[in-house]
Amino acid sequence: MSRCLDDYRLRLGNTEYVPIVIGGMGVDISSAELAHEAARLGGIGHISDAMSPYVSDRYFSTKYTKAKSLKHRASRDTTDKTSVRFDNQHLYDAQRRYVETTMEAKRGPGAVHINVMEKLQMGAPSETLAARLHASLDGGIDGITLSAGLHNGTLKMIADNPRFRDAKIGIIVSSLRALKIFLRSGKRVDRLPDYVVVEGPLAGGHLGFGEDWREYRLADIVTEIVAFLKEEELDLPVIPAGGVFTGTDAVEMMEIGAAAVQVATRFTVTQECGMPDKVKQEYFAATEDMVDVSSVSATGYLIRLLNNSPALGSNIKPQCEPLGYTLDKTGNCPYIKAWEATPVDENGKKLPVNDKICICYHFGKYNVWTCGHYVYRLKDTTRQLPDGSYQLLTAEQVFNDYRYSTEHQIALPPALAASA
Questions:
Q1: What one-character DSSP code corresponds to residue 318?
Q2: Residue 239 parent element (H or E)
Q3: What DSSP element (H or E) covers 384?
Q4: Are 36 and 112 contacting, i.e. CB atoms less than 8 angstroms apart?
């Protein structure tokens, strides 16, 4: 009889989990509601720290974005953003409130972690990252998954936090080299990661690969890292991510030494996902030829997204006063330069900016349809309705399909009852 994912368990410290981790997708795509379902079912869910002041304003009627915009209104009509900075106390308060509220509502034997990105420079990379990390720990998060960067100095930033050795801390890497860099930084503060997420080239969103991403396979990277850890006698759980579309895909990873899998694409079309339902239908309708890996992100990373994303070819004026999440410490952002270099038409209207997108504005508006490579297979996981749309799934349905399915089978949801 074929094995299923439920035959395995992930152990972090003294706790065992169902070996399913839902990845941290922003802005608020990996919602608290989705993370709660993962925890209730015995796995690990993530929330994302992407644009937490903006998310706080949406949920708690705070005014952090407006306050930042008003404070920096002098630079609105220029492309000189050197003075634009976040109020770090506001940033801390926004992140802590979001985390505390999420954790207060958590139920079940699983855990809720937060995905914290190094590449959100926010005009002051070290200070803003430290504020987000400390707020997450002080808010009671079960664990922090460090992403979007090497995080060479991150652990040192929080070494004095009372929960530094209490909360679980993991790192996302795409190569053994990146893992070795992080392990060296951990030795400086005597703190190894509690787990390692190995993200392969088929993952959604920003990628840790260059233009040669097609030359890599997740299974090969996982095998190399598992062998290295064994050789170094480091008992660190390895969690593959990117392209794990079925429960059988997950079992195949477990058989080469993984301790769990991180999955995301199939949860984007669940009722609990924070993405608007209209966009969920775009994911269902996607075809393979619509999936692109592009250099349009202002972060400098390649990004996988649908080529009909509304953000592409936009000419939105840089939104740095209210947002400004990708500004570097000198006030520069590749989108600003691309916007400046784009000519106007005979009527003075800015032509489409093709080289980059303003990810701050467009991520917040859900106009950047980032996706995993297998997004085009989502239509095969559900039922098409009489009006041509697709039935949304529940997180529990998807979670349990990963947990119990075999032979690469995907169980369709129960058909909706016909309206009277």
A1: P
A2: strand 238-241
A3: none
A4: yes
User: Which alpha helices (H) appear in 233-384, and where do they start and end?
Assistant: 247-255, 277-285, 334-341, 359-364
Is 0.85 surpassed by the pTM of this model? yes
Q: What span, in angstroms and rounded, lies between the C-alpha atoms of 373 and 392? A: 20
Tell me the three state secondary structure of residue 349: coil
Q: For each of the chain's 420 residues, which pLDDT tens digit applies?
A: 589 999 999 999 999 999 999 999 999 999 999 999 999 999 999 999 999 999 999 999 999 999 999 999 999 999 999 999 999 999 999 999 999 999 999 999 999 999 999 999 999 999 999 999 999 999 999 999 999 999 999 999 999 999 999 999 999 999 999 999 999 999 999 999 999 999 999 999 999 999 999 999 999 999 999 999 999 999 999 999 999 999 999 999 999 999 999 999 999 999 999 999 999 999 999 999 999 999 999 998 999 999 999 999 999 999 999 999 999 999 999 999 999 999 999 998 999 999 999 999 999 999 999 999 999 999 999 999 999 999 999 999 999 999 999 999 999 999 987 654
Structure tokens given for 90: 């506001």
The radius of gyration of the chain's CA atoms, rounded to the nearest angstrom, is 21
**What proportions of the chain, in percent to the nearest 5, are helix, strand and coil?**
35, 15, 50
Q: Are 353 and 339 in contact (CB under 8 A)?
A: yes
Give the tokens for residue 208: 């840790």
Q: Are 210 and 305 in contact (CB under 8 A)?
A: no
Helix (H) or strand (E) holding 169: strand 168-173
**Domains contained in the chain, CATH given:** 5-272+385-404 (3.20.20.70)
What three-state secondary structure class fits 143?
strand
Of residues 159, 63, 141, the one with CA closest to residue 98: 141
The Cα 37–Cα 186 span in angstroms is: 32
